[in-house]
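Slide 14.
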Amino acid sequence: MYSDVKATRLTASGAVFAGPARVKKICYLAGAVAGTITVRDGGASGTIVAVIDTPADAAVALDVDMPENGLRCSTNAYVVFDNAVAVTVFYA
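Slide 15: predicted structure.
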């Protein structure tokens, strides 16, 4: 399945895209303290689609590829993160 992929960079929790989307990849810059990146469908209090643990390693950039067709967010993709400096979400 081919589609145009877009990206959104966040430096605080927020919406990735204001409509249905499939999260394909997440790249992030870790913070000094371990934390999490939570992908939600439907805003800040929406259904949790995935939780990714982040290491306690300041200024380490890591990425996570999503399997198969990605994480489906039928309403909108929203990312909540703590103890990460920045998160870039690739979606289609």
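Speaker note: The first strand starts at residue 6 and ends at 10.
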